[in-house]
Structure formats: C-alpha cells, structure tokens
Amino acid sequence: MIVCDGMGDRADRAREFQTPLSVAKKANMDALARDGSIGLIDPVAPGVRPGSDVAHLAILGYDPCKFYTGRGGLEAAGAGLRLYQGDVAFRCNFATVDAKMVVKDRRAGRRIEGRDELAEAVSEMRLSDPSAAFEFVPTVEHRAVMILRGKGLSRKVSDTDPHKEGIPILRSIAEDEERASRRTAEILNEFTEKSFKVLSNHKINAERAERGLLPANIILSRGPGTLPPVELLGRKYCIDAACIAVAPIVRGICRVAGMRLIEVQGATGGLDTDFKAKVSAAVQAMKRHDLVFLHIKAADVASHDGDFEKKTWVIEKIDEAMAQVIESVDLAKDYIVLTSDHATPVAFRDHSEDPVPVLVAGPDFDISGITKFSERTAATGNLGRLLALHLMPIMMNRLGKVEKFGF
Amino acid sequence: MIVCDGMGDRADRAREFQTPLSVAKKANMDALARDGSIGLIDPVAPGVRPGSDVAHLAILGYDPCKFYTGRGGLEAAGAGLRLYQGDVAFRCNFATVDAKMVVKDRRAGRRIEGRDELAEAVSEMRLSDPSAAFEFVPTVEHRAVMILRGKGLSRKVSDTDPHKEGIPILRSIAEDEERASRRTAEILNEFTEKSFKVLSNHKINAERAERGLLPANIILSRGPGTLPPVELLGRKYCIDAACIAVAPIVRGICRVAGMRLIEVQGATGGLDTDFKAKVSAAVQAMKRHDLVFLHIKAADVASHDGDFEKKTWVIEKIDEAMAQVIESVDLAKDYIVLTSDHATPVAFRDHSEDPVPVLVAGPDFDISGITKFSERTAATGNLGRLLALHLMPIMMNRLGKVEKFGF
C-alpha cells in the first residue's frame, strides 16, 4: 500500500484543468490503473478537510471520528516514546520570549547548540503536584515532546503556544467543564513558567547571549493528545503489518497500530528522499509481511510550496521507482494499492477536502481498462467513490481476514 | 423485486476477469439493463462481508447494524413459529455424542426416522426454573428450533454446538456481564444435559443401535437470536407486500417484516427449483400486491459449490424464466428491481464483501443504454454505487409512499 502524501490535486481552470498527476509522465502508475480498479476516496467524508494524522488513521481503517484523540499522542509515539492510557502528550518548541512573555521567535533560531543540555535542565524540574509527573524529550531541531503522566489528566486544554510571534504566550485553559481539564491546564501553566525560570538562568543561554543569539528560554506547548484506543492492526485482522515512513506523525500512527517500522537508508521524508530505495525496501518487505505500508512525503512538500512543476517531478520520480513494483509483484497473487492520504492542491498550498484517486490491483480486482491514472479518470472509475475508511476492510477481505457479519 | 441469492461474483484474473453473470446468455436481463438504470450496491457497506440474514434485512430497508438480533429469531420465524419480544430462539440439531460428550456426528446421520417422536420427548422435559419455558420444534431433517421463553432472558450467550466433530460439546457461557445472559446460559446448559438424558434412554435410539445407526442422543444449539424490533413493511410504507421464497431464513425475515408468503409448487430453494413457476407466480402476484419480493436461492448454491458453469446455467435459467417479466410487465407503470443479496464468488465459495450489480427499471427511471448486465458494466452504471439499504426507500418513493423530511 503506497500512500503518496498530498499527491491528489484539483482541477484548476487557470491551468486548463490539468493537475500534476494528469500531466506527469508515469507509465507504471498508468499501467497499474489499466490492469486494476480505480476510483476516488474521500479521506474522511466529502467536505471534510483532513490533517495528515486524521487521514492516515482513516486509511489504516480507524474511524477518525472515533479514534482521533489529538496530535500530541501520535507525535510522541512517532518520536519513539512509550505512551500509556491516561497520559497526555504535547508537541513542544524551544522558543524565545522577552521579559513580558512576548514571543520573539517560536523556534529560538531553529538549530540550537546545547539543546540537549537545556532539555536536561527542563527534565529536572519538579511539579508542585506530587501526583503528576512529566517526561520531556527533545526530537528534531527546536522541537520536543512533553508527556504529562498521572491520574485525572485530560487533553481538553488549550495551547500555551500562541502560534504567532510578537504576541504574549497564552495561559492554558480547560476546554470543557471537567475537573481533569482544569487540573491539566494548571499543571501545563506551571510547567511553562518553570521552564522560563530554569532556561533563562541556564549557562547555555548566557553563552548564546554573548554570541548574539536569541536565548532558548521557554518551552511552548501545543496539540495535546492521548493514545488513541485503537485495536492493533495485527490483532484486528490477524496480519503481520510493516511500515516504511519518515514523517514522525505517520510513524507514530503506524506504531500505535502495532506495525513494524522498517528503516530505509536514504529516506528523508523530503524532496531529496531516495524514492527507489524506499520502493525497493517495500517490495522486499512484501516477502515477509502480509501488509507493507509505504509513505512518501515529497509530493506534499512540493504542494505546500505551491510548486506545480516540482510536484509533477516528484510524481514522475515515484513512478520511476515503481518500475520495481511492476517487475517484482505478481498481480496473480499480490495486491497493490496506490493512493494519497489527502489532496494538497498546489494552488491552495494546504490540504483540501477533495477526494483523491485510488488504484487497487490484484488477482480478483477487475481491470478498469482506463489507460491513465488521474483525478479525472478516477472520478468515473470502476470502484466508484468510497471513503478512505473502507479501503482497509476491502483489502483485508481479499486477504481472507474478515469475519462475516451475520450468518 | 427479484433477488438472486449469491448471483454477484468477482473478476478473477485466472478467468480473464469473466464472471458467471458476464458470460451467461441472458437477453432478458440485458434488455432490462438497457431500458433501466444500473449500478452497484454494497450489501452493508464497502468492506463488510454479509450473511444472508444481514443482507436481506438491508435489502428490505432495515439497517442491519440496528436490527440484526441474531440468526435464531429469524430462523424461528421462517419455520412458522410465533416469536414474542423477550423470547430467545436457537437453531438446533439432533446430534450424536459419546459418553464423554464428544461429538461423533453433528447431524446424527441426517435423516432420522422417528425424529418427531424424539422431538416430543424433548418437548416434555421440564426446566428446573419454573419462570422459564421452552418450545422445541423439529424442522427439516436433523434440524430444529428451540425457543426459550420467560422474563429476563438474553441472546448474548455462546453456542453449545462446537461446530466440529471429534471435540466435546461446549458449555454455554454469557457473552456480556448481564445477569440475564448468565441465566440464559445456565438454562441452555440444563436443556442440553436433559436432552442427553431423555434421548439416550429413548426406545427409538435403542432401535437405532440395533440397526447399527448412530443414536440421535443430544440437542446442540447455536445462533441465539431475538425478534428484530422492526416496523412492519406494510405499516412503514403503507403497502401490501408479498414474498416468494423457500429458504427458511428469507421466509423468516419476510414474515418478521409482515409480508404475505406465497407458496409456489415446484419451488425447492435448490438447483432443481422451478424457475418459471416462481417468476410466473411473482408476475401474477404483482396484480394484487404493491411489492412482490422474489427470492431465488440457486445461484448461491452453485457458488458455494465453486461451480462456475452451474452458476452460469442458473443465471441463464433465471433469465429464461424472466421472459414472462418482459412480456407481462409494463415499464410505463410497473417497476422491476433485479439484484443479488450479496456476492458469492465461485473462486471464494463463500459470501464476499464485493458490491453487487443492481438494475431498476420503470416509468421514471432513466435508461442506461448499456446493453449488458454484469459486475463490470454496473460499476460505471448510471445509478452509481449505493448501499442495499437505500434500495427500498428509493423504490417506495417511486410508489409515492415516502413522506418528505422537512418542509
């Protein structure tokens, strides 16, 4: 199952209704479309504009309306942290504030020398409430994850990160009437204040000041989340599932789903990723796993940049790499699914609500006979228009992993 | 409304993507497809593999997620038994066990001479709980239905039938935390033990032993179910609905829906059924009823046998019989619906999750212009891809039986 993040696009009158997928030269995808079934999937439902987290939950067969419990939990899982039921995880930034708590730089200059030492100082802080504890782990550059642990916590609290510079940090407040939410907001505020005290006085920041650098003097938090109460994919369908992905959020969801993470040299999660290495690793992994989930982020990166040509180039590179799929995979016994988690139209530069093309090929899928894979051809394809949530049950049926409903 | 059980199939690479429906010579169905609208329906939802019971509830417009309350209740209704709210019905078998309660034959040799006398002995048993009673009625061959009656019963109990030979019978246990479930399991276990005592000592079994036959010395139970709390079709839509079906489960659902059952001479529910007699009876019944539901089981039988040619033959026989429909039915005022309750691919030999073709023709349905009725043509047909649950409301709208939602 190959998911090209943000590959879907939308017809643009200014470009004569062409999309990167419709103009890309991609003989391999087109051949699979012809030899398989094609259609459209709505990531969540028509008219719902999905985040990557929500879209991936749906693609893996977990109804996001039931199982989406915030970004933080998935992000923590993606960073390799162990999350327990009841924990609340936050995405954090080292940031720079002035004495009035106005945010000068949400990233404290992005690459922070001595970051790990600063993180250690944060970790040594103690909360005044003895029944609560936290774990603080730096991840990439200025980013970190903080997990609150203890009884009676809630994810229904607001961010301390104002998401903008030039305005003061925010006090976290409860987003519902629960006592647990009020308590969690208080703890988060205490954590934030203490981080300012500890970091402001840290010698690393004194050194940074000498060198004319912004101090990394506070931890801002956002996106509280808990572990989604999903049934592991392996248990739900009795399969052995693996995942190849770099993006932390996708890794997090796959970990939460109990999939094995396969590391690939040269995979970067960016435009410079080694497309061939990733596809090759996936084809290899098919020998040992019932399901291999391959996530490629690059098309989404080009889409957020609004770069039509770059996105087209990415699709062509993915298609080139897919030659190995055509060569190695036997459609008389194996299945291929190719789709996108959501559309990120280059003209819109963000995720949109558009349905995205999907292609399934294998021993018992009819052939569409359609010789081109695009948003337009998929719209009248032989699969019709499904929800992303349907994809996993359909495929698991083909693998004989689904119980009958009724008799 | 003609429902050809299991007629839907799936493209099979090994057969060049042909299906029984795509290769069958069936001029009448094809003509109706051309003169009507065609599309696909998912029996429950994409990716859900349905039992016949669940699929038929959906086709009759009852959401199985709400109204499926187990097989036993529908089966009891199909056997003509009167079921009340609160009753729990089981499907039963006369079976053979040894002294250690290991199942030797789940059917006690299938055709059991003196079965009714044995059933009478079972019926005369008394349960130790005076507030519970049961009704035990033999049906076909080794089969029977048992209805538990009384206050505080539940269908959330496990089977005593191990569904396999060579292993001991099972003790029924509660499948939830309810007191009613624990009580029902206890009663079922008592019923099973007593049936062994009564049947083991019965003179019919002594005679069987003398003749070298296996004793029918226990009653095994499975598939507990209650009466689904459905609104009668006649009341829901203010119509007079009739049903022609032999399969007990379909008869049961139609009875529960309040439809009139029409008996047809020569209808067997098997491959040897009189297709023409059934279709003829349905065409006749259209004169007196707003809705006539005709169920033909044969294609499903051939499918479970994995017999492509036989299934094709069945479809051709049904088509031949449908000449009467073409002759007698006036599409300027009557409606025809032709579909399948679910797919039973011959290569899979069981119900699958595939959507099935559907055809609707009548005064105000557009013509598809498509001159062939098959899984493939239906996939890009003018009805799109619907749920089976949508079919009845659509048809009832055409009959002017549906109230506006809103103003």
Q: Proportion of β residues of chain A? A: 15-25%
- What oligomeric assembly is this protein in? homodimer
- Count of DSSP-assigned helices of chain A: 16
Give the second-level CATH assignment, the architecture of the largest domain in chain A: 3-Layer(aba) Sandwich
Give the % helix of chain A: 25-40%
Provide a brief overview of the structure.
Two copies of one chain form a homodimer. With 407 residues, chain A is α/β, with parallel strands linked by helices.
Q: Secondary-structure blueprint of this entry?
A:
The structure is a homodimer of 407-residue chains.
Chain A (H helix, E strand, L loop, with lengths): L1 E3 L15 H4 L3 H9 L1 E6 L9 H8 L4 H4 L3 H8 L9 E10 L5 E3 L9 H9 L8 E7 L4 E8 L28 H22 L2 H8 L7 E8 L7 H5 L3 E4 L3 H9 L3 E2 L13 H11 L5 E6 L1 H7 L3 H14 L1 H6 L7 E4 L16 E6 L13 H4 L5 E4 H11 L9
Verbal overview:
2 copies of one chain form a homodimer. Chain A is α/β, with parallel strands linked by helices and 407 residues long. Chain A has 2 domains: 2-68 and 231-398, Alkaline Phosphatase, subunit A, CATH 3.40.720; 76-225, no CATH class. Chain A is 34% helix and 17% strand. The first copy, chain A, is built from 16 helices and 13 strands. In chain A, the strands form 2 sheets. An 8-stranded mixed sheet of chain A has the order 9-8-10-1-11-12-2-13, sandwiched between helices. In chain A, strands 3, 4, 5, 6 and 7 form a 5-stranded antiparallel sheet that branches. In chain A, strand 8, helix 10 and strand 9 (260-261) form a beta-alpha-beta unit. In chain A, helix 3 packs parallel to helix 16 (388-398). The model of chain A has no long low-confidence stretch (mean pLDDT 96). The A-B interface holds A 37, 331-332, 362-367, 380-387, 390-394, 396-397, 402-407 and B 10-14, 17, 40, 44-55, 64, 68, 71, 223, 249, 345, 347-348, 350-353, 355, 375-376, 379-380, 384-385.
